[in-house]
Specification:
Blueprint (H helix, E strand, L loop, with lengths): L4 E4 L14 H12 L3 E4 L5 H10 L6 E3 L4 E3 L6 E4 L4 H11 L2 H4 L3 E6 L2 E4 L4 H10 L3 E3 L13 E5 L3 H14 L6 E6 L2 E5 L5 H13 L6 E5 L5 H6 L2 E4 L5 H6 L2 E2 L7 H9 L2
Parallel strand pairs: 1-2, 1-12, 7-8, 12-13, 13-14
Antiparallel strand pairs: 3-4, 4-5, 6-7, 6-9, 9-11, 10-11
Helix pairs in contact: 1-10
Length: about 270
């Protein structure tokens, strides 16, 4: 059957510094769709933040959001799959981030019911919500909201060394079967339910919704939260400014997002 499904990350893949999908990339995606290849989005973003990109590329498929922890059909509104963190893991993470060595170095974002909750409105949080096109609810102690488990917890910091140090400590503390930890940028440390990632979500979309196999999938991404998806797809493409570890596992490396790398990859492999 060849490639029947094209799956695209958002930030760093179809959305660069402009926070928009370029007309060049839109035209390439439209041509692919005209040839009968379906197109889906798989992102670390919230569902409501990803929705405008889904609309911009004319996708008719469910959105894979929160790195795979939330899959929703925008056409029907149906949430097809939701895998939140456990209450225990969420409480342990929030306790960890409240320690004095991290309290003033990182912003903490928690996501409940596709809404964002933060402990304070800092410059970096304001920049995040402006790019995401969402609102944030301020709650000084996020642990007071742990009646229901959150979908994702994000630690955000301009201090990339702090993010890397926290990642190393938490990966030593939690096995992959206890917590999924990844970075979608050097400034973001993301935690979701164990076993949930873009690859497991893509497997669900591919096999259970569409009836395709992994070899029928071409996926394009740019960061560590795309690793599993690029390994799963029959054809995994990394963007030109992806970290070396991500480029290493890709079948091909496209130009950067601001050079319309997705359009180049589409032209090379699908057109």
């Amino acid at each position: 059957m060849g490639i029947r499904l094209l799956v695209l990350d958002v930030d760093g893949t179809i959305a660069g510094t402009s926070n928009q999908v370029s007309e060049v990339v839109k035209r390439a995606i439209a041509e692919v769709q005209n040839r009968g290849i379906q197109v889906a989005i798989a992102t670390g973003r919230m569902y409501r933040s990803a929705l405008r990109f889904h609309q911009a590329i004319g996708s008719q498929l469910p959105i894979i959001a929160y790195n795979g922890a939330w899959i929703q059909n925008p056409i029907t509104g149906e949430i097809l799959r939701h895998s939140p963190l456990s209450l225990q893991s969420a409480r342990e993470l929030l306790d960890y981030y409240e320690q004095p060595q991290w309290r003033d170095r990182v912003d903490i974002h928690c996501y409940w019911d596709d809404c964002l909750y933060v402990r304070e409105s800092t410059q970096y949080t304001r920049e995040y919500i402006a790019r995401s096109g969402i609102q944030a609810n301020v709650t000084q102690d996020l642990r007071t909201l742990l009646i229901d488990p959150p979908t994702k917890i994000l630690a955000l910091s301009p201090d990339v060394d702090a993010i890397q140090e926290m990642m190393a400590i938490l990966k030593d503390r939690y096995s992959p079967s206890e917590l999924y930890l990844t970075k979608s940028s050097p400034y973001f440390l993301e935690a979701t339910y164990p076993g949930v990632n873009k690859a497991t979500a893509l497997h669900f979309l591919t096999t259970e919704i569409l009836g395709y196999a992994a070899e029928n999938v071409m996926a394009i991404g740019d960061n560590y939260n795309d690793l599993e998806m690029l390994e799963y797809a029959g054809l995994g493409i990394a963007m030109g400014d992806a970290p070396p570890d991500v480029q290493k596992i890709a079948k091909w490396v496209a130009p950067s997002v601001d050079e319309d790398g997705v359009a180049e990859a589409i032209a090379k492999f699908l057109l």
